[in-house]
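Protein folds are increasingly written down as discrete tokens. With that in mind, we are printing a sequence and the tokens encoding its fold.
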Amino acid sequence: MNVRSRIAICLLIAACCLQGKSLRVCRAQSLPANTNSNPNDPNPIQLENQHAGARDWQLTRVRVDSGGYRSPWIEGYCSRQSVKAGETIDICVSTNPVRQFKVEFFRMGYYAGRGARLMKTVDSVPGKIQPEPAIGEKNLHECHWSPSLQLTIPKDWLSGVYLGRLTTEPEGVEAYWQSYVIFIVTDDRPADVLFQCSDNTWQAYNRWPNKYSIYTHPNGNQGPWANVSFDRPYGREAQYTGVVNDPLTVGSGEFLPLEFPLAFWLEKEGYDVAYCSNSDMLAPARGLRCKAFVSVGHDEYWDLRQFNSAVTMRDAGVNLLFFSGNSVCWVTPFRQSSSGGNNRIIFRGGPYGADNEYAVNRERDHGPFPHRGPDEGLLMGARNVEPVNGGGDWVVTKANHWMFEGADVENGDSIPGLIGWEYHGQPAQIEGLEIVGAGTAWQGGVNPQQWTATIYPGPKNNFVFNAATIFWAQGVSSPPGHTLPWSHWSRPHGPDDRVQKMTKNLFDRCVGRN
């Protein structure tokens, strides 16, 4: 070592010592770590949930048109799926007939069981009738609505899922009408848990204004025929209307029925959780600053860059939790909107599954597709299968596994209705993979398929868990504003202490609580 190098090291040590820090601490500052200097101090989520919750945040008066998918009396969308504190987002709203309206912005969380906190109210916003867009290439419906208001996210708004409740101001004796807009506040801070919303899938199934989802093109509902845009309102939750048939979700995508129960529970339990959209995961940096990454609900549509990010996170030691079903099913490339907005148009680009039979069959039956994704089973532990939808009970197969500790279960015990409405099966050949749950799902009560829940070790004392069902979150909580889904003559029963304990064991292992 030359003299110059020795001098540089001595200066670094001296600088650290002057600040009362060791060289080891100086190095640690560059690594993802819990920001609390004292582990007993409350984390940002615990502090946030000390604020008073709102008693009135749900939709009270909703009116949908004759098609049942939109609310032209008042509807809107946001110019971005996610935004950071200090950045600006446009809220684009149409009212027909023209009415002034107000917007109340709520952060969704626990808040002593109320489920939301009122963050800001904007009164007397001028309304106007905004045009239904012309049909574009591949049935694209891309609105070019002028912003009704711009919102700069205050610095103290914590990462979370935010609903803007739109309410018309009635004239004379008429009623008021309501709907939501939805956006995610994301951030870059180190956190224990990163909660990825499945907003690509919300948009894939969004039929606004009536029949223009990825599934409603005249050429068929499984091919690459349709483009869909985030520049349009979310209509009534429309995924196979028998699954969640609740008009009080209008404008909020599928967050309230399929994802909010897990977010509510995580915040109730005091986990330090941050939130992101699918489009925030096109690079792994956000996830690498967290201990666990969560896919929840119906997370079907992934850009290939999301897949690569998840592989990078797993290999770097991040725990991956798939509390979801039918996940990582379709390659979903993003592209810009016609006005230059990033990641605002998606389509079904092709199946994941590499050369597995079910992927080959999808290409044969619904292609040709421009893309073929890798084997999702080698990431998640279990795969998408055919048929992929149905319902059944979640059955324990490895009760001596640590994830069941304290759950009071034995092999063969079942949790009624927790499998559905889509699931995973066909476990992958991964060293150390264990099947912790398995059983039969029934499509329409007559067409059986086998599902499997799996867990396997990652390379750095981490793990990957696959619950193998869209409905897992239904077993942890039933917050305000939530309606139980159902499908194929099967339904989950709601919160179950066994599911809650299993979920707690998994998260506690992720964050080092046990």
